[in-house]
Amino acid sequence: MKELICIVCPKGCHLHVDEANDYKVTGNGCPRGAEYGRIELTHPTRVVTSTVRCAGGRYPRCPVKTDQPVPKEQIFEVMRALDQMELTAPVQVGQVVLSDVCRTGANVVATRSI
Q: Which domain holds residue 58?
């Protein structure tokens, strides 16, 4: 049995996930916690937030994030792709700056206009 703290909402439920019993989750305060517990042990994912270089704007870097979670094992690959990028101002909030990053199906979007 694995113990996790749910990060879906600020409540922080203490989850118990029984791997031997088809990843049955207890301790969750809502259905989203049960889903989180199962996914965290079978195929963990995270939304990646970072910054990329930006030329010609007020700030030298533009904050970005993936528009959906990516597999946890590909986070460093995604970060290397972001490190190789350079945007040119103007950049609008919500603008897709990198499509299908590392073949994950996730797009990288700007989270600030520059």
A: 49-110
